[in-house]
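Lab notes, practical 5.
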Amino acid sequence: MFQDLKPGKHLVMDNFSIADTFRLRRTVHRPLKDPAEPIFVSEKSWETAVIAGKIILDEEKKLWRMWYVVYDHNAEKIRKGLKKSRYGNVGEPQTFFLSYAESNDGVHWNRPELDVYPGTNICFKGYSDVVNSTILYCPEAPEKQRYMLVNRDWYSDQVGGIYIAYSRDGINWRYTDTKPLIHGESDCNNACVYNPERNVYMLYMRGWHSAAVGWPNGKGNQRRRITYSESRDLKKWTEPQVIMTPDELDTNDFYGISVFRYANAYLGMLWIFDDDVFETIDVELCWSRDGIRWERHPERPKFIETEEKGKIGGYMVYPAQEPVICGDNLYIYVNAHSSFPHNTQPEIWTNHVYRIRLRIDGFVSLDAGSQMGNLITRPFVLQSDRITINASVQGGKIVAELAEPYWYDPRGKVVDGFSADDFDIFTGDSTCHVLSWRGNSNLSTLRGKRMMLRMAMVHSQIYSFTI
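Output from the prediction step:
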């Protein structure tokens, strides 16, 4: 049985907050570049390539902060030449490490010199590599653990997997153990998100229990699936299970996923790898209410798409960890990776980072055309004095009314004074429009009542509503 909606913002991409729709169509919106040119490129002698990871906006300091992974081609060449490990992937000199940058506007970045590795902005190297990692900011944690880094690393040829490092300031990091929390080679981004409803950390990695073992010749990559494990204490983790695998509409590989919590949902930017024909990586949007069962738009539209072939990013693009909210906009940082197909990468590859913009809540909308479309929300007990919508109208209109659930009529029983006839018709474009009826937007007299919001729409889109 469905539970009533809780107070707060509700996205409209599935049937969790919306009980039913008629003549409405879901649209996944593709972000646009802002600005058009790259905003971050390799500059230092040790930066063959830079990969944007975690970006946050410190509102108090009005400072944008970026943690990014650096790849040093020369170090990799030297390390492999030393032949100290089976694959040349253990120990010094390290080839991937974590660096730090700052910005006043999210576009122009500087690399402050840190005292961790004097003369550089490098802040952490781990045991062998810092790559495929996620940073979480945990303000309620003990001071020394305010920042948490979930990282794939190798302590030795035999000991490797998922490790966690902690920091009080995001600059000085340290591991707590030489043993990994989860063994295995998860060589893509390892996304970690805290789930407050269940008080668990949710970890997304590459696959265990995989079907493609490469019979009969031993070839094939059996790990390009999305695998899930969880933990309450960040020490004991559940056995990893495959939760997302390609279906009949997909190519054969999910390269990785960037997962983040947004409003009352978990959103994922799924890396779609075409390993059969084009050797490209594009990004699709997916969503979940519990972080385990995921959905996508049935037409599988691209959310972030590769560039023109021959350009950097012409074959592979993948996002940073999560969007940054700034005003009425969402900003996503995208790694445009090389100008060659995945399986024909040159010995030295380059990339750049660009930024894309989306209206706040603008991932998916419910759209109406020339014929009137309708929606009705799941019931909720009103606990605020107003209801707002994030919506846009193009020559049409949006009309709303409030109705109490009524056993004898699936449409509900309209609340007196808050019918469609009383509604002040919305014809604009707003990320936070306050609904009103005959000029009255104060709903304090309805507090504590159990009701539903019903809307009729023409030539318009709705992205979210807040109760």
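Observations recorded by the TA: The mean pLDDT is 94. Residues 73-82 form the longest helix (10 residues).
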